[in-house]
Amino acid sequence: MSDSTTHEQTTVDVVIVGAGFAGMYQLKRMRDAGLSAVVLEAGDGVGGTWYWNRYPGARCDILTVDYSYSWDPELETEWEWSERYATQPEILRYANFVADKHDLRTDIRFGTRVTSAEWDEAAKRWTVHTEAADGSDGSGSTVVAQHYVMATGCLSVPKVPDVPGNGRFEGEVYSTGNWPHEDVDFTGKRVAVIGTGSSGIQSIPIIAEQASQLTVFQRTPNFSLPAHHGPIAEERLVEYRSDPAAYREEARHSRIGVPFVPISEVSALDVSEEERLAAYEESWRRGELGQLSPFRDLGTNAEANDTMRRFIHGKIRDIVDDPDIAETLCPTNHYFATKRPCLDTNYYATFNRENVRLVDLLKTPIESITETGIDTAGTEPGDAAESMEFDAIVFATGFDAMTGAIVGANITGRDGVALRDAWADGPMTYLGLMTVGFPNLYMITGPGSPSVLSNMMVSIEQHVDWISDTVDHMRSEGFDTIEPTELAQRKWVQHSNDIANLTLLPTANSWYMGANVPGKPSVFLPYPGGVGAYRGACDEVVAQGYLGFTLAGPSGATTNDGVIRSVKPDVAAMLAFVEEMGLPPIESMSVEDARAFMAASAEVRPPGPDVGEIVDGVLPGADGSELEYRLYRPDSEGPHPVVVYFHGGGWVLGSHESDDPMCRDLCVRSGAAILSVNYRHAPEARFPAAADDGFAAVQWVAAHADELGVLADQLAVAGWSAGGNVAAVACQQARDAGGPAIIGQLLLNPATDCDFSRPSYSENGEGYTLTTALMTWFWDHYCDPEQRTDPKASPLRAATLAGLPPAMIVTCEFDPLRDEGDAYAEALAAAGVEVEHLQAEGQTHTSTSAVDVLITPTATRAAMGDALRGIFGARVPV
Ligand code: N01
């Protein structure tokens, strides 16, 4: 341990910025580990957010029993909260109680603002520059440390109000995010409040009680539910007191860091209006953020969300007497909970008071703040502006959230790169904890972590524990530095965005998106995958030897590059769901049972989109037997180009019906007719029956194009999996036979070779639906081992691939067949064939064909439709 203090420079192991709940616990952990640590805090006391946000009505919006530390079990009995949502003074008292109990203040430098910090690569140390928050120490002082922890909070830098004339007002000016320590009395005063987020909504009812006149300037109405202040519900306390440790553990693995929140499996659209309203009434009655969404799809489905929106609109109209004011208070430009919903006490009812006026800034924007008040535009063009006089203006205009405090601390990393520049297009982090180019810089609840979408206490503790354990690991293993890899960081950001994009969250102009600060990049800042899932990822990173990190020390550097979550989130959820069902593997079944199982699964899937017309028929197979087909015609005037389609199923399973949603989708997206062929299957008809039937079907369609109402000279083939194999082989057979002319081939995850030694088999041979065992079962049923190298079985082995039609080949990252599909694309291109090769990241063998089940593969199918349109060019009717 080192702790040498000079007049203006201190050297410690760890420097922590911020003495809120994050910084306090981080200090405790570092001390307990025997490290020297100092906390730099601009305020004169502990508490962070709760030190600064002293505005009237400030309270937490997570039940206080949950919004409290779990790391000191004695606190569970030493401290008792008086209300379900404690007030700011009570939370601040709690912070002080903990600081006293653990004697934290001795290592906290109050009144000290960090001005900048830079990484010294030679010394492997951070140099952190500070100044007295009141400007009294001239040149300031410096702290040198190995580890630099930003415990700066997510909502700690009040946004400079972007209101014209800001600064001109000569009366009293307040900011909710930086409220005076002495009492502010609005009695008898004319007060303006600008902003109707959580801070505005909490303070407005109280200010209204004091002020002679309160004018609320609202730009965006917000959703708010009653907080129902009072004592905490007894049933909750019983649960908590019976086993506090288990209660806390439950919170750590929950979705938002609050234990025992039921997660519904039911869609809001699948219940009756009465059931839905009863559920929403219960949410309204409970007034708990964790229990506002009684249905599974309020966060993902606009129509479902609309039912909740309408319910709250109804409540607002019930509460507010004046119908016009009620309408102005109804949020309509964003979905429920895409901005953080608020909990209030009498917020909407406040607008029934005689002394309260609501100004709708969407109709009458602020023209300027003046020396005496606020001028707004008139309602109609040409209307005179209105000048309002006030004694006090309260800015409840929010924060430069999540990144403001970190970027504002002027951090310069390796090679002189400023964090501000590194994050110019939005923050890039690995796990929200660290960022590339800034070794040993840690963020507590940073962007890319659940943070503001969670109970902050739970997220803070998890981050502090992870950082502390990591520092411990570095010391015991002899490492000086830790830094994430580019790949791990890029993929984490993508993973977080992938989840956000499955939800309605990015549709709102919220501070979650950085939209409240002019010029801030528009990216979704917190990690929306949930507290438990996030903790799982962090734990796995460690269990896999700090996956995605480089650790370096005197004896060298170790990079364990890799990606912690690369399967797309909806695909991962589907895999987990299937695994939970514990179904027997297909290869353990008889062929008959496997076919029955596939047919039963098809019964319960979404049907796929409507097409213009569906016609079933038969065509002759290669041996003269009748093969059923299904023709899908687009909803446009024909004749259409035609795609002869071959279903998947390993030459053993499936039929012209099995890929029905896929064919409908392809028909709609491509504008072409799709003719899906039920070629013969193994083991009844082994190799080369499927291959020969494929070619026979193409010949028959070309010859009967007029009867089918399709264009003979606009014929392409397509297939998925084994069907991709049949389609590829049909192209080779048509080329070798001199016709019919096939003008394009679309191969989705095609089987092109019989070689299982490619890496995709070892990487993806288990756990991603299509397994090595199942492929073995398929090949064994289809083809004798000595026949498998025949190009009709393994088209990759054809003597030449020259002269084949232009191809679009789709391969999926988590498919055992990925590498042979890639190899076919490369071989075609090498043979001079025009190839569009799409390598779908995060997808599996079966995900792309799961029409209307999964969202992320939709882009791949859109590209497939576009590819066919490109092949058919102007011949696709619109
Ligand atoms: O800030 P906000 P907040 N002209 O950004 C408006 C947490 N919190 O301090 O939406 C006019 O939500 C802005 O309008 P618009 C909680 O996570 C928790 O209230 O941009 N208006 C909006 O109405 C919360 O989400 C508690 O159109 C302007 C308001 O100001 C987060 O902190 C309590 C404007 C800002 O709302 C932030 O809440 C308080 C302009 N130029 C806060 N600029 C608890 O209960 C902004 N606005 C625990």
Description:
With 878 residues, the chain is of the alpha/beta class. The chain is built from 26 helices and 30 strands. Strands 1, 2, 3, 4, 5, 6, 7, 18 and 19 form a nine-stranded mixed β-sheet that branches. It has an eight-stranded mixed β-sheet with strand order 23-24-26-25-27-28-29-30, with helices on both faces. A five-stranded parallel β-sheet has the order 8-17-9-10-13, with helices on one face. Helix 9 (302-319) runs antiparallel to helix 10 and helix 19 (660-670) crosses helix 26. The chain is globular, with a radius of gyration of 32 Å. It starts with a strand and ends in a 6-residue tail after the last helix. It binds 3-acetylpyridine adenine dinucleotide. 3-acetylpyridine adenine dinucleotide binds at residues 59-61, 155, 161-163, 176, 194-200, 202, 219-220, 340, 361, 396-399, 452, 511, 516.
SSE diagram, text form:
Blueprint: E1 4-5, E2 9-17, H1 21-32, E3 37-40, H2 49-52, H3 75-78, H4 88-101, E4 108-109, E5 112-120, E6 125-132, E7 141-150, E8 172-175, E9 190-194, H5 198-210, E10 213-218, E11 224-226, H6 234-242, H7 244-252, H8 273-286, H9 302-319, H10 323-329, E12 342-344, H11 347-350, E13 356-360, E14 366-369, E15 373-376, E16 386-389, E17 392-395, H12 404-407, E18 411-412, H13 419-422, E19 441-443, H14 456-477, E20 481-484, H15 486-501, H16 531-543, E21 549-553, E22 556-560, H17 569-581, H18 591-603, E23 613-620, E24 626-633, E25 640-646, H19 660-670, E26 673-677, H20 689-703, H21 705-708, E27 710-720, H22 722-737, E28 744-748, H23 759-764, H24 772-782, E29 807-814, H25 818-830, E30 835-844, H26 858-872
Parallel strand pairs: 2-3, 2-7, 3-4, 5-18, 7-19, 8-17, 9-10, 9-17, 10-13, 11-12, 25-26, 25-27, 27-28, 28-29, 29-30
Antiparallel strand pairs: 1-2, 5-6, 6-7, 14-15, 15-16, 20-21, 21-22, 23-24, 24-26
Helix pairs in contact: 1-14, 6-7, 9-10, 14-16, 19-26, 20-22
This protein binds 3-acetylpyridine adenine dinucleotide.
Residues 59-61, 155, 161-163, 176, 194-200, 202, 219-220, 340, 361, 396-399, 452, 511, 516 line the site of 3-acetylpyridine adenine dinucleotide.
